[in-house]
Amino acid sequence: MRRQLLVVLCFWTFVAPAGAQTTSAFTAADMLKVASASVLDLAEDGSRVALSIRTPEHNATTDHRRFGDPTYVAPAMVDLLVVDTRTRQSDRVFKQLMHVRQAAWSRDATKLAILTTAESADRLPITTAWVWEAGRRALTEVPKRPGLAIAANSELAWRADGSRLVVALRDVADDRKAQAAFRALTDGPIVVHTSKDAFLDWDQLRRNDRLRSWAELDPQTGETRSLLPATKLTDYQLSRDGSFVIFREDATEKTDYDVISGTNSHLKIARAGASTLLVDAKALKTTNPRWSEDGTLFAYAEKGEVFVQHINDEKARSLTPKPEKTEQPTDGATPAEDAESFSVGMISRDNSKIVITSRKGWYVANIADGVRERVFTLDEKNEELNPRASVLGWTPSGDALVVNFSEPNRWERGVMRLVLKTKALTALVKDRNLYQAVRYSHDGSTVVYAMSDGDRPADLYAADADFRNARRLTTLNPWMANKSLPTSELVSYRDADGKTLYGVLRYPVNYQKGLTYPTVFEIYETFFENGFNARAAFLANSGYAVFHPSVNLVVGRPGESWAKGVTAAANKLIDLGIADPNRLGVHGTSYGGYATVLLLTETDRFKAAINISGKVNMISFYTDSPRLGVRNIHAPEKSQDRIGGTLWEYPERYLEHSAIMRADRIKTPLLNITGDQDPNVPASQSREIYYALRRLGRDVEWVRYANGGHRPPNSAAESVDFEQRMVGWYDKYLKAHTSTNTAQQ
Asked: Which residues does 497 contact at the CB level (< 8 Å), separation at least 6?
């Protein structure tokens, strides 16, 4: 009877109540209540799905002081549900919120294995295995045995016959050593760093949790049988028939400055429970191979060339051999075009074909002989005309690909079927709605996906393979039915170079055409899709239009890109009669915060700005944040920051993109918000700009959350405070004066 009561309560939690109510504003406190769902596993026959339901309010606090500790697992408290995709019956697996790490269905969909993690009295992770039986709706804890424990970072799978689980194990003594090493680096009392060590100290510590063994676990007795002895596992999997183990061993010899968290992995395959290697591929330094479903074949791309290898082969062979280089012509003739560069896609279920992609389009290649045929053509010279598309997978019969699809210039999106014989795209579902997390069952009978109208939070649905007979599985946020939320629109504009860009506009609630509104721009990189945005909803309820603009970032000149793109977006909204030109604000987080302050050195059009966890000094930032290893060096040299080289190669670029060096140009009132424990962008970056602008007599404020990380607030109360401070800052500077045609808010 008690179990039945739990089911009824769960039903009422996720089914919207009937009856209309008066609408009310969406508040900062409401932001913490918004629930989202993630699919942990879908049964092979599509009959049941395991879902985790999460809200920010139950996961608002993290011990950021333990960032980089291999034995610390940040909380991720969720409600675990099992939903019948045909009847929509929902069962709550645990009576309370749990930190669920993994869940996996047995092949016959009768049992769900679960891994949860908690912290022991001595602050070490304790991972517990559970089995939920669908027939009895009963939950059983797997007995623990002394000695090796389930690793906190373990994957989870069932043997094909459903008799045993496959997990990673870790010696508790190794966790204690890792914990001691972390304390030595953070507490001292004396810490010595030397270039004589092969690894940066934090890089070495980060790799510590890879030392794991792999075993079968009897869910009834807790007994284990070794499948693979302890080794530094980067990742691993069991072949579908369970006869062999596929794993990558971390063989990195020193810190790699070319790749963030770079790992030199040796791909290996061994018989389950035996030490004899079937394959030992030592050439895959940073490559993540694509595996066939049965685990007997893998493919990878290296320098634009696609290679395949069967586990019985001695070495990989190229499917796309590059033509031999020829000398440049000396008679004025046009040189040959560069060889096409390919990436790896999915392997068909029968291992006969593989999808490979390039800027020219998608190809299907025969694995036996490499013969390929283009099945989907892209415009490599006018990429903005190409649809936004990605391959979700093969149909079980292998005659078609399933494609996530969106038109290039409007919200017309969904899931398509690409028939290989005809090369024709057919819509399975295509409309203005937003379709995400699309997942097919192994037998191809059922698809599970998240869908929203783009303005409200998504819910999960199940449907037949062709998207017919759709069933709504969740109603996660019934309390929001009568909340005032903004509507969104895709807006196109041209930047200063004439390049067409797109941005997402959220109208203020109760928007009236003909009136202009205070408008805030939240910047990062590029935006196209909408989707529920809690902060935008709060700002829109406070009377603001919110715009997420895109910019065309150029290596070596990212600051110029922001000035060209964001100001052009502002001009567009002013031309549309939406934005009040005298009441523009701008903010961003992390890279967006960096862009925000940099933008203020280029223009004084914005009357208020907020920098959240953003850097302002590319020189001091360059070798800061030791717990991230080489990340802050790699970012400007090779990745997101787009400086294009080292500090010593391009010192002028680092100076040019350090807002602190041009702080005297900043006239816009600036609010800086940081977390003192941020390992990504240290709070000292905001300290620099705060003291500089204060010295210059500018209007500046710095808010520090002492226990916060890169996401500054670190509790539910702090989260409300954080959002209200943002709106308060904008209210102070954007609502003090209004024009005659401006909405009074």
From this structure: 552, 564
**Nearby residues of 326 by Cβ (< 8 Å), 6 or more positions away:** 336
Residue 660 inside a domain? The answer is yes
Sheet containing strand 434-440, strands side by side = 434-440, 446-452, 459-464, 471-472
Query: 250: how many CB neighbours lie within 10 A of its CB?
Result: 16
Can you tell me the distance from the alpha carbon of 425 to that of 701, in angstroms, rounded to the nearest whole number? Answer: 54
Contact in structure between 109 and 45 (CB atoms under 8 Å): yes
Upstream peptide bond of 75 is cis (omega within 30 degrees of 0): no
More confidently predicted of 17 and 538: 538
At 499-555, the pLDDT tens digits run 999 999 999 999 999 999 999 999 999 999 999 999 999 999 999 999 999 999 999
Q: How far is CA 596 from CA 470, 593, 608, in A?
A: 43, 5, 11
Paired with 450 in beta bridges are 436, 460
Nearest to 240 by CA among 297, 310, 293: 293
Are 659 and 600 in contact, with CB atoms under 8 Å apart?
A: yes
In angstroms, the first-to-last Cα distance of the chain is: 53
d(CA 689, CA 613): 12
Alpha carbon distances (Å) from 534 to 358, 484, 538: 36, 12, 6
Asked whether 682 and 625 are in contact (CB, 8 A), the reply is yes
Give helix then strand counts, H and E, for the chain: 12, 42
For every residue of 233-271, which 3-state class applies, written as one string?
Answer: EEEEEECCCCCEEEEEEECCCCCCCCCCCCCCEEEEEEE
318 within some domain: no
d(Cα 239, Cα 228) in Å, to the nearest integer?
Answer: 13
3-state class of 196 per DSSP?
A: coil
Q: Quote the tokens at residue 345.
A: 């896609």
Query: Considering its fold, how many domains does the chain have in total?
Result: 1
Which residues face 279 on adjacent strands? 269
Residue 224 to residues 142, 212, 669, Cα–Cα distance (Å): 12, 14, 62
Flag whether pLDDT at 575 surpasses 70: yes
Does 292 fall in a domain? no
Give me the pLDDT at residue 275, please: 65
Q: Hey, is 13 helix, strand or coil?
A: helix
Please indicate, yes or no, whether the overall pTM of this predicted structure exceeds 0.90: yes
Provide the pairing of β-strand 157-158 with 148-150. unpaired
Residue 581 lies in a domain: yes
The tokens describing 695, both together, are: 């010295």
Q: Domain of 535?
A: 486-734
Ramachandran assignment for 498, one of left (phi > 0), alpha (psi -120 to 50 degrees), beta (any other): left
For a pLDDT cut of 70, what percent of the chain falls above it? 93
Question: What CATH number did the domain enclosing 498 receive?
Answer: 3.40.50.1820
Contact 591, 614 (CB under 8 A): yes
